[in-house]
Amino acid sequence: MANRAPTFSLQRIIFLSVSLVLCIQVGWWINVQIRESGRLLQARAQALNASRAEAWQMDSLSILAFIHARPDPSSRAGAVEGRMPALPSLEQRREAIQRHFPHVAVVLSRRSPDDPALLDGSAFLALRPEPMLELENQRWHSVFRAASEGAFMVVAVLLGFVLIYRKLAEELDLKLRQRNFTSAVTHELKTPIASLRVWTETLFTRTLPEEQKQRIRTLMEKDIERLNELVGNLLDVARAETGSLVVHLAPLELAPWLRGVCEAMDLRLGAGSLGLKLEFTSEPLWANADPKALATVIENLLSNAFKYAADPRQTTVTLDGDGDDVLIVVSDLGQGIAPKDLPRVFHRFFRVGDELTRQVAGTGLGLFLVQEIVTRHGGDVRASSRGHGLGSAFTVRLPRIPRPADG
Ligand code: ADP
């Protein structure tokens, strides 16, 4: 994963820039909304003020009409020289104003310096406080609505971005791992084939003493074993992916089977090279298992304990019961796994570190296969490590079964 860091940081920069632009855009939108609602409310307040002026006009006109009214000289009946119609009382005028302008109040003292005095100076016209308060409330309501809609938009879009970003990062990571896998498999295939070619040429072109022939034969067997293991793993992974990896479960006594698998693997890797220590409980433990598939699990874990630890190795395999389960733990004192990598070691193609600096050969499929097989046994597998350089432990948990009647 040599080019992983720059790609991810570029993605991050794009992501942050888009988020920033989005936040600015939404901030501007909120600002526009607030300004618009402010303008609307200002217009309503002006309309209210105008209604006060209209009320004043109406009242003044009615008073002027009374003042200028003259008795009709042509009317004889009830005509009284010089008598003027009586002015409407303040109460009557208040009622008339109230009827036409419900938001305007006739008050005896000014509430605000803008309140106009009635034409005869008997009272003042003021705006009622309720509509103004309602306008103020409406203004806050629209500010709150614009802000919450904007916040919701930002959160929704950012959430979408985060999901897309994560999906993209996953895809990219898988692509990179796949690319690394191809080069790793090519390398894994080429190395034993090249070595087999050299040994075959040596055997057929030179006359060698029997002892050296024997040594070459052992080395060739190791290469063939390595190829066989790789092809077997690849086939199993392909089966796991298509769902055709089938395990044939039958009651299995774990201790003798596990001892056999560990000892055979120790021999294959070079007798004693694992520094193997078996710690088995004396109690007989049984599980429904496919011995061949489960052997692949243990072989992969032991192969990793060998690959990721330096000489002299100390590998411990423990077998114990835990309530209704059986635990098989393969632990080593090798290079360990950093906490950030622990959750990913079971991912397909995942390998810790950088392809350019990585020293140990591998494909990143072993632990994926381990997990697939253990899951098909109804169990689970976990990795733990106290950190880099402090070794690792892999715990396989399987459902325990009672010893069969004829076991
Ligand atoms: P690989 O073919 O690379 O060994 P695995 O799937 O078996 O693939 O392991 C995935 C990665 O987990 C390895 O590349 C290695 O970085 C890490 N790992 C697995 N087992 C161990 C271990 N016992 N000690 C340290 N690291 C380990």
From TrEMBL:
EC number(s) on file: 2.7.13.3
GO MF annotation terms: phosphorelay sensor kinase activity
Transmembrane among keywords: yes
Keyword Mitochondrion: no
Ranges annotated as spanning the membrane: 12-30, 150-169
PROSITE patterns xref list: HIS_KIN
The Histidine kinase domain, residue ranges: 184-402
Gene3D superfamilies linked: 1.10.287.130, Histidine kinase-like ATPase, C-terminal domain
UniProt name for this protein: histidine kinase
Species name: Candidatus Geothrix odensensis
